[in-house]
Amino acid sequence: MYKFNLCFISFFFLFFFSLISFFMFIYFMMNQMVMFMEWEIISFNSMNILMSVLLDSISLLFMMFVLLISSSVIMYSKSYMSSEMNLNRFIILVLMFVFSMILLIISPNMISIILGWDGLGLVSYCLVIYYQNMKSYNAGMLTVLSNRIGDVMILMIIAWMMNYGSWNYIFYLDFMKNDYSMNFISILVILAAMTKSAQIPFSSWLPAAMAAPTPVSALVHSSTLVTAGVYLLIRFNNLLIDTLVIKFFLVIFGLTMFMAGIGANYEFDLKKIIALSTLSQLGLMMSILSMGLFNLAFYHLLTHAMFKALLFMCAGKIIHLMNDNQDIRMMGGLSLYLPLTSLCLNISNLALCGIPFLAGFYSKDLILEMVSMSNLNFLVFYLYYFSTGLTMFYTIRLLMYLMVGNFNLLVIYNFFEEDYIMLKSMFILMFMSLVSGSFLSWLMFSYPYMIYLPFNLKMMVIYVVIMGLIMGIMISNMKIYSLNKFMMSYNMSFFFSLMWFMPMLSTYGLNYYFLIFGYKLLKNIDMGWSELYSGQGMFNIIKNYSLINFIYQMNNFKIYLYSFILWMMIFIFMIIMN
Fold first, then answer.
1. pLDDT, tens digit (0-9, with 9 covering 90-100), for 362-400
2. Which of 135, 373, 424, 466 keeps 20 to 30 A from 324, CA to CA?
3. Is residue 240 within 8 Å of residue 190, measured between CB atoms?
4. Whole-prediction pTM value?
5. Residue 32, by phi and psi: left (phi above 0), alpha (psi -120 to 50) or beta?
6. Alpha carbon 135 to chain centroid distance?
7. Nearest-angstrom CA–CA distance, 503 and 212
8. Peptide bond into 201 cis (omega under 30)
9. Residue 393 and residue 332: Cα distance in Å, rounded?
10. What is the C-alpha separation between 54 and 38, in angstroms, rounded?
11. What Cα–Cα distance (Å) separates residue 429 from each residue in 15, 265, 402, 441?
12. 571 burial class (0-12, 13-18, 19+ CB within 10 angstroms)?
């Protein structure tokens, strides 16, 4: 009984604070307020250690979304992890994760930012290795070491900001903008954000982190770990506008979006498809940030958080019912057996595609129209639109595998009735997936964006979505063998499903030679010369001496006689010599 109480108390408090955060956001926005608070923790001579808090409309709104999603996830975990022996430990880890994110959100200070940033990295490691098998350990180590690069970047920012006399970055964003140190800091901020938000070349940890329990995946991929990098860039957006380096990163972020979209079409693991779709959306947020439209990136970040958390919850429920099988080829006809879960899954999937009047439509359509209106080159334009088409492509492919056709794993066939604790938490997010797009567009933008474009350019989003829809249906329908054979040819699928060999390049390629070198050191030195002349060698010498000693000490008459004769011979020899 105690196990469930902690879930319920956590859910209640998080939901309550989410409402408080929302009402504070309304009050702050209507009065155009920003609250900056500082507490002096320690004062020693001229050194002060301060705790700073920045409450403005951005931090309060994001905090409301994080708390709402985490309350739903904890409610969901009550049922999902009900067979878990250490449920309390899991809930406490999730709460630590959420509090680290909140510390990051409300921090205007680099010191408190690294506390939240590092807290996310360490707790995510504990959550990824939660199931304690070799795959989880590898994934956890890859996650934490990739994020460690971002931690080092933030430590370097702290070192560079010592020149300014304070670590409150908000004081220096405007009037120190053209300073040499600030230019360097802006590059470090982008690199730190790239590691946390898994952009090329740090993308390999994000699909690997799917080894974590599904409630954790729902939290990580919607509003916490991977969005921390985007949030940091939103805060530092003044530094990044009109710099040359950000145009280079625009291409990198666009390629991440494109790579993840293609990779998701070659994947058969349900959770990995959703993880790659997150990577694609993160690339979209980061690339729109690179164009200087930070408010649109924040808008898409919030709408995406809702339907992505819901998508993972539905996936977790389906995996549970499939006896922990994640292969989409084994599924089919789920809409007949799980109507309510299928409803949630379809709504979240269609919101991800940007189907009109769902949450994703408002932000994605606005972003793509702003891209069409900007004077960007054809490559970036192509990456944006093609990636949007790919989103529709892998979503429809997923729905065709899951919903259409017959159930393909008749051996299990143990669909029991739908779990109402899970459904309650899913319905909260389903409602938000329906209304959050329009609701946020009224709240965040005081005036509507008026975008004038030619008819075909205005309809371009609809065109690519329809193309993606047709391709998704054609690929899922196995009757079209020639196209399917071309898509699934060994070389193409090997290249695309391995994310352009990113894990090989960034992980195995880097650590292979170090591990081989370590193995040779162990074999030739620790188990070779060093072993021979230190541990093992000394042991053998002492053992041989003790054996000889032992023979002498045995009560054996022959030995005493032999030693007496030997002693007498030595004695006689000494007399003769004298």
1. 888 888 888 888 888 888 888 899 999 999 998 988 888
2. 424
3. yes
4. 0.85
5. left
6. 16
7. 18
8. yes
9. 18
10. 9
11. 13, 26, 21, 18
12. exposed
